FUSC family protein (Corallococcus praedator), 731 residues
Amino acid sequence: MRGDGGEATEGWVAPRGRSARGHLPRHVAGLFRFQPGRPAVAAGLRTGLALGVPLLVSALLQMPQASWAGMAGLFVALVDKGGPYRTRAQAMGAMTVLGALVGFIIALPSPLWVDVGLTFFWVTACGFARCYGDTPGILGMLLANLFVVSLALPVHSPKAVLLQAVFFVAGGLWSMFLALVLWPLRPYRPARLAIANCYEELASVAEAVAVWPLEGPSRVGTWDAVQRAARVRQSLETARATLGATRQGRQEESGRGEHLLVLLEDADAMSLLLTAMSESLDEAPREGACRQARQEAQRALRSLAVDLRGVAGALVRGTVPVPASWDVEAVTRVLQADGGLPEPARSQYAHLAGLLGRVREHSAVAVDVASRLERGGPLPERDTKPFSMDPGQSRAWWAVLGDHLTPESVVFRHALRLGLTATVATALAEGLGLNHWYWVTITVIVVLQPYAGLTTEKGLQRVAGTLLGSVLAMGLVHVLPERWMMLAIIVVLICVSVSVRPLNFTVFQVLLAPALVLLAEIQTGDWQLAGVRILNTLLGGALALLGIRLLWPSPEHARFPEEVASVLRADRDYFREVARTPVPKESDLREARRKVGVALLSAEASFQRLLGEWKGPAKELEPGMALITFARRLTAAVTALAASRAWHPTSDLGPVMRYVSDALEELASALVARRAPGGLKREAPPVEGADALERTQVSRLVRQLGVLHHAVERMPPALRAAEADVRPVPA
């Protein structure tokens, strides 16, 4: 049965009866769970060389201050998160220049009250870097750590201060040379990989729909299908940002960048068509002669997946794709056979045949352009101007910062919380005269995250990694008699730790901790620092957990309803765009659809954080799951209607548009106000001038709306009341 909400959670098994007692074990169990993927071997080698060569020079020349070049090499390598070379160079250059300035400004000794005041202002400012994205956020965290280290290890003469800054710049330039020059410089490689990922995700969607059984329940609403759709949108957004950053400053060239732009445009267009096809197949009849038409459509989708993977292979490996042979007219022949199909099945499968024809055109263009990419052939006659990059990239930095200078901003609250907690850590640790007190403050900076669940997870990872790593360091001190052996093992540990960082943060910490302890021991000659690091890490982790609980706690249950409300309002605007007469331009529809996709990604991320913080029974989260699932299904239903508007440009969707818009606005307002929604009208107004296909599509859209309304009605009190006590369990 469809439309009753029962299919919302199909494919997602909620743990039964899990309560607060299962919260901490769930975090502990995930400490050593590896993510899928491969180790970042190249990044590990670059980081090891960036640190190891300056350390070797420092040891050979017997110049301890030259070790600042090694620290610079390590920090500049850590800020390199991949992507376009232009973006990487900007981030690494900023780390080099700002890191040298930080050490230059505060390298001289200062009293405790000055250290405390400077810590508050600098760490708070670094916390605001998150509002510009992930890479600036990492840059801000590293600069905050460098600030604390410089504060704790002052020098005693202006000459030494200048020399320290010079060594830091030299180390940063060495790390940039390794990452951007010594390794093969292929400016469009990151963009090619990002676009290839788009085609891989589209191929996964096509394959999944192609193997749908002819009988049984709907497969559109399963959690796996929702996740596939989310991955497609995320891959498109990543590719859009990567290609846009790569092409900045290259407006004059019209070669490889233009080929990639066309491939990204085709991927975006095919995502719409595949969404419309999955909706059409799910709604179309399956009995009698319809089975053959459905089988032919699914066979065509399998061939489409082959073509899409061929394009992905061309982008990744440089191979020339071989187009698959698939019969686009097979569905049409079934429709024209003796007896044919009855209405409305004929209209639905005719629409499906039209969608197959359009997706075949886009697939052929993608295969053709991918072939020309390696041969350097000119583009086919095709207009790429309607496709645009993210307009948000052109916003001034002060405008972005101004958006977050409000207590309602998560970034604002996190930056202030981070600054205050780091200040307390500095005052406490330095005031008590703790050995290597800066490890306490650095732990606070690393562990404290904008969200409570992430802070608990990060704290556990940091503490577990430090405990195991420090024990390993104690053992290495006794088995490595020579200084050069210690330097070698430090470089090896750094290489391996950075390589496994994308797979598991705890293992990264386990391997990084002994490297840092040994590095500090070499500099100071104190061979008891492993125990000191353990104690300082425990103190810093405890302060971070206190900070997230006491300073503006904002559990995810308070944000999740607002995130879903944003999705519903974006869906409302998308449907308004689709319902316009005359039919809007494809570029307008694409932008409206993209806004819904971005809002859905944000809501799904909020739901995942909610899972990490939730204390109550897992079954109470089912309405939230239904909201996410059917908000995406509503988007798919609107997309299917948009794809058919080319055949029905004269139908009047105005009454239905007003009905759907009012209902979505009422649901969004109810979520934001934490109240039950008003009643939903039982019958939607009829569509004037519509045929059987469009009436079916509108009926499906209204059905998804009814499930959303029911899900909002069933929201548990903990998700509806802003004052609910649903705080994370401390580690």
Q: What stands out?
A: The chain has three domains: 31-185+404-550, 189-247+254-392, 555-720. The two ends are 43 Å apart (CA to CA). The chain has a mean pLDDT of 76. The CA atoms of residues 577 and 589 lie 7 Å apart.
